[in-house]
Amino acid sequence: MRSRSISMFLGLAGTSLLLLQVHAATQTAVVPQDPGPRPGAAGAGNPLPGLTAQQLAFFEAGRAEFNESEEIADGLGPRLNLDSCVGCHSQPASGGSSPPVNPQVAFATAGGVDILPPFLTSHGPVREARFVRNADGSADGGVHALFTISGRAGANGCSMTQPDFAGASANNNVVFRIPTPVFGAGLIEMIPDSAIVAGAQVTASARAALGIRGRPNFHVSGRTITGQTNNNGNDGTIARFGWKAQNKSLLLFAGEAYNVEMGVTNELFPTERDEVAGCQNSPGPNSVTEMEAATPIDATSAIEKFSVFMRLLAPPLPSPDTPGGAASIASGKAIFSSVGCALCHTASMRTGAARLPMLATKVVPLYSDLLLHDMGVGLADGVSQGEASGREFRTAPLWGLGQRLFFLHDGRASDLVAAIAAHKSTGSEASGVVGNVQQLTPRQKQDLLNFLRSL
Fold first, then answer.
1. Region at 209 (left for phi over 0; alpha for psi -120 to 50; beta for the rest)
2. Per-position DSSP letters for 171-184, written without gaps between them
3. pLDDT value at position 23?
4. Could you write out the DSSP letters of every residue in 285-317?
5. What is the pTM of this model?
């Protein structure tokens, strides 16, 4: 009998030990981690539904322009960051964000005399470089193009040197931007200013409790239109595109990108950024309305085609069950709201009246309030644009996040856990929300990450 009792005791002890081991293994397995880019179909890069045949033809012409590599004979350069739009915006489809293999690395020395800047790597993000200060200590903030056309076919002896990126890096004087996705951009363009302002007012008390402010990229003086300024001169309306909401419209965004990123002058930016003698190999502006063209599409300039492509590009589609399953995603969505993330990353807005029916009075699930927020010293880049200060950034829309590879304005993070943590620093409006996230259980954190990767 005593032997049997001992056996039973040992059996129970073994069972208890096994349960403890299972419990410990379960706890270990729930260490929250970014599931990584969502596999499967891109769910992006397609036109908005409901386009007419002619509208679709304009969309396809815009996509072809977006995907085309420019040549020096077309006006490429003399200074540039890359030779095509799609090179920067290709993940997971045309119009997206930085791809897994950085095309700037191959372009750097492809037939030219340029050297690869120290902050570019094959598997790092596509980057644009800005200098914070001029040599005399005054504010700079402008884009310093990475490459030149010197030594390349068709450059006709053009001789230029790259900026001193190594020296700027050593002096902590260079900051970076990575490409923003343009999926659903036409819907964002059609959100009324009043909706942006009203959205912030609805959650004002909840924001204040967490130290969140936020403001549009314009300055109000006396609450009159004539007293409001932004980066677009005298119109006084809310700008909303770019990392600091510095551009008002898609046409302006397109014109600036053609000129700044590829050196292609156009009707919005008609002069070269560098007019060094011997390096102008195409009459300017390089891209204009072709007044003698036979068809409306052929007459349309490159930047107009580019803006039409963005305007008619559908938003990315979220996944209902990947990663982690539908229940985890639903839990993560609720947590996203309860901890305060949704106070800045507003789940949706609505467009107003629009000439195109597919853009009129539509729900826009962008997960952004389109406002500027002070992100503190940790994310500050020291660059002011429009009314945005060196510490302020537009709330980045999160739709399509599930398939992005790099995060934050400079691409410093490739993991959502690190990206969320970077939102917390001295002076950041997001610190209170990140503090709430840090109090979640491991399971809740994983649900939150699964939700974000489902977008």
1. alpha
2. TT-EEEE-PPP-TT
3. 40
4. SSB---TT-SSHHHHS-HHHHHHHHHHTBPPPP
5. 0.91
